[in-house]
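Data card: per-record layout.
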Amino acid sequence: MERQPDQEHCELLIVYHPEFAAQGYPALRERVEPAFDELQSRGLLQLPQVRVREPVPAQEELVERVHADSHMRSVATSGYYEVAMLSAGSVVLGATEVAASRASNAFCFVGAAGHHASHDGFWGFCYLNDVAIAIAGLRETSDLERFAILDIDPHFGDGTRDILGSDPDVLHLNFHSGHPIGREEGANNIDFALAYDASNDRFLAQVDKAIAAALDFSPELLFVIFGHDSHRDDYGGFALGDGAYRAFAEKVRAAFPRKVCYVLSGGSNPRVARRAIGDVIQVLAGTSIYGNP
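The structure for this 293-residue chain is written out next.
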């Protein structure tokens, strides 16, 4: 894996581990290595403002602050405990580096997703709630307390809502294509329900509203749960085209030029992943975008 030498500060930290492609959940792992190779082919990994680091597994005692003992026992027998812990560690590392201003922004690859993992249950390729774990860690190791989560994976982020939905210092902006699942109460929960065949324009119009709400909330760090399963050629809801993800990243960067941590979520199509992840990371790195929308 190509890695940039450590620096005091970088514009973009990419957190990646080969185990995500080798041992990740089958529906998710086939897109990981092609997407990382795309970054190499675009020359993004050689940019001086970009750094790549490998994560280590999240600490068990931190994960246990978020999930019940019964949940941990179930994950331990799932066959995906190791890659789930490594995936959570990816998000912890990215968020920690952004919080400490050693990176302006981060993009965290994973081998198992997180937003369907609740305090005591999991489904949908999600075993540990990586963002909730990262927030728990930041509240112990930094002076950050106030967070926003912008989840554009088209499946309802019920696990995140279960764990953080009642937290007054967390704003949960949740896109989905269907009926809400789980708790809806909480002053800072905003859902954006779109039709299953939602177009780029419809999606991006709602993104503008979500970003406005995030700006009003004034978070100290913004998490973006980034699922490209919303593409018309992937398995999830919505019918987005390639250009939607570039336009989304540009809108987020215009409003939040720093203190943003992207977390990979749903999606399986390698071609979609190469384009979507490549475009997002190119925006985050501050370089020009090529290719047709």
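Known properties of this structure: Residues 13 and 273 are 18 Å apart (CA to CA). Residues 1-6 have pLDDT under 50 and may be disordered.

See the next section for split statistics.
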